[in-house]
Automatic annotation (TrEMBL):
<protein>
    <recommendedName>
        <fullName>Carboxypeptidase-like protein</fullName>
    </recommendedName>
</protein>
Amino acid sequence: MRINSILLGILFLLCQNSFGQILDEKLLQGKIRVDSVGVNGINILNLINGKITQTNSSGDFFILAKANDILVFSAVNLKTFKKTIRFIDFELGMLSINMESKTTELKEVIVIKNQINALSLGVVTKDPVKYSPAERRLRTARDFKPIQLLNFLGGSMPLDPLINKINGRTKRLKTLVVLEKKENYIKLISELYIKEYFTVQLGIASDYVNGFKYFIVENDNFLKVLESKNEERTSFFMVALAQEYKDILKQ
C-alpha cells in the first residue's frame, strides 16, 4: 500500500511538471520604439520556438514565448537587437523595446555655392546616369552590331567595338554586370534577414545558408518580389524556395 502511495506521488509530480511546461509559453505583448516613436514592419524572431511576427503601424506586436527564450529584433534600417525574456517580463506579459537606427559615417563634403557644371550651364537637361564599375567598363567596350560595318567602311566607326567583339571582351563584361547585380541582391538579403532566420525558420543547415542565397537570386520571379520591397511576400517566397533547395540537397 505504501509503495502504491509513493508511485502515485511520483506520477502526480511528473504530471504536474508536464502540465507546467505546457503552460510555460504564453502570448506576450510588446512595443518597439525608435527615438520614442513606434515603428512598423520590424521582424521579431523567437530563436527557441521558431515563431516569427512583425510590428504593426504603432510598433506593437504579439509573440508566443516563455522565460529564457531569446527574441531577435531586426529591420533594414535598424541595428539588430537580441533580448532574453526574464521571468519578470514573462510574469508581466509586456515588453518594451528601444532600438537604434543604423548610422553610416560619411566623409566630410565641402559644398561650393553656385557650383558650375554642365547641368547648371544648360549643356545637359538632366543629370547624367550613374553606372556601377562593371557597367562603366561595359559601356566603354560598347557592343558591336553588324550594321556598324557600314560606318567602319566609311571611316567613321571606332575600332574598339569590333576588336572587343572579336576577342569576346564585351561578352565577359556583360557577365560581370550580371554577377555584380546578383552580389548586390545577396547583400540586400543578408541585411534584411539574420542568419538565424535561415537556420531556425527555414530549416537550412548553417553550412548551406550562403549557397541558398545564391540559389534564390537565380530565380527571376523572386528577384521581382525582392525589388518590390514587400518583406512579407519575400518571406513567403523564400519558404517555398527553401523547401525546393532542401529537396535538391537530398538528391
